[in-house]
Amino acid sequence: MLGVQVARQLKAAGLIWKPRLGDRFAVPDRDLDDEVFVLSNMTIQVHDRPEGRIIGFNGTTEWALDDVDLDETIWLPREDQLRELLGATFRELRRENDRYRVRVELLGESHTFTAPTAELGYAAALLHLLAAATA
């Protein structure tokens, strides 16, 4: 999963989040830095009961936040979302030993980004594209 630090870099580079169900996000600087939240219509939890495990559909949780401004959150895009954001520039994802290589093409020039995870490779490529867009 993409960490808050890289997600902050993407946000600072100009990545705009248009929230959708299933999106992951963090609320940093509120003693919630280690918590990952998911946009959902309802809270669903697994409960262990003497008769077995059940899935409970809950309307609210007792510790729920009232609300948080979107600007106070950091989107943690998934691998598929990062790849989608690369759009037509994306050419290839390749695993080589314990590293991932992401190749994009921008204005006829190929650029390769190597990282320990596919998400970090996609994020590096996206940071490059965002920088090129503002240059």
Automatic annotation (TrEMBL):
This is Pilus assembly protein CpaE. It comes from Actinoplanes aureus.
